[in-house]
Amino acid sequence: MSSAATRPAGPDDLWSVDEHLEDILSTVRPLEPIELQLLDAQGCVLVDDVTVPVSLPPFDNSSMDGYAVRVADVAGAGEEFPAVLEVVGDVAAGAADPVRVGPGQAARIMTGAPLPPGAEAVVPVEWTDGGLGEGPVSGMRARSSAPEGAEGHVHVYRPAEARAHVRDKGSDVKAGDLALEAGTVLGPPHIALLAAIGRGTVRVRPRPRVVVVSTGSELVQPGEQLAGGQIYDSNSFALTAAARDAGAIAYRVGAVADDAETLRSTIEDQLIRADLLVTTGGVSVGAYDVVKEALAYAADADEAGGGVEFRKLAMQPGKPQGFGSIGPDHTPLLALPGNPVSSYVSFELFVRPAIRALMGLTDLHRPRVRAVLKADGALRSPKGRRQFLRGTYAGGEVTPVGGAGSHLIAALAQADALIVVPEDMESVEPGSEVEVVLLG
After folding, report:
1. Does residue 128 carry a pLDDT above 90?
2. How many CB atoms lie within 10 A of CB 13?
3. Contact criterion met (CB below 8 Å) for 278 and 351
4. Angle separating helix axes 290-300 and 260-270, nearest 10 degrees
5. Is the dihedral of CA 138, 141, 143, 149 positive or negative?
6. pLDDT by residue (tens digit) across 84-104?
7. Cα angle vertex 407, ends 248, 342, to 5°?
8. Residue 163: how many CB atoms within 10 A of its CB?
9. pLDDT tens-digit profile of 351-362?
10. Cβ atoms within 10 A of the Cβ of 411, count?
11. Percentage of the chain lying above the pLDDT 90 cut
12. pTM, two decimal places
């Protein structure tokens, strides 16, 4: 049940942006942790600290293709007087029992192979004749085509210091070190580290499953022909993409016509795969605002799970909003307005933080900065409303993009920031410092 049900407010009272957001975040709880295979855990939030069970690398190994040698045997080696060493065998990556290197000896070694007993350094193959006796070479011949390369003698033309071209055991991380902290969002490098230390599974909070439903009999699927009075459904695409960008697994449901029973049935069908439901459209005061009609009915049903409350917020765009929970599992639902800009701004302010709260993150919000307003004239804002204007941000300055209309999708596509005009300001002059929400 939404905690807002106890808030004393008449039907015409305005909620502040902060009150609405606080109600959402006080209701939404992080998803329960589960154990996942590494690749399935990508994008999820780590629940526990992970310590290193085995050092990386787990043994001293070569960082070059070349020859494992003793330092004393190559001291003073040069082009005119090379060191001539007996080659006692090959050490390949994965070798479990490498040959021993004694005085006057060398072992041909590959990158990643364990440093053999007795060896103190590695000389790159380019510093040698590769066992051919014909001066410096640029590389080794393949073992399959020249097996004799692992025998005979090699001429070394340069000296090497102790541990040269050797990766020390534990030089990356040591056994017992902290590998990853709880709260880490697992990306490709984290997955690589977990695999490298031998973890096949990891305990995480799963990515939330978000279902986006757009409403409106006027909406047509992109790619189809428009008839009179119809427009293409852009909101469901925008919000599904935004949910994925926030870290969710998002599912888009095609536009639902303005029929309460159809919408109610659609939402009930989607509950099985939703940790969060988002609707767009049908939340204002018109005769065809079907979301309010459908969810008001659900609020009275036994299986409703708490119901959805519809509100008016002191903001522009995005005044009409709805929030609550539905279904037997009390699945959170956020009902957003249908105008494209209103819908997207509402997502950024309310849905994105809810998704990140479900993930178990503590950093829920887009970054905010102070910037100097660069504009041709003053920005006007209605008294008592917090206005969010689209803008572009660069070098400490922000420039408005497009007008204040909540239908201007093209201007939204150009914006990478929202300019925030507080409730107590009706005008902002060029050169003033303003708060900016960074979207990129």
Report:
1. yes
2. 11
3. yes
4. 60
5. negative
6. 999 999 999 888 887 999 999
7. 45
8. 14
9. 999 999 999 999
10. 18
11. 73
12. 0.84
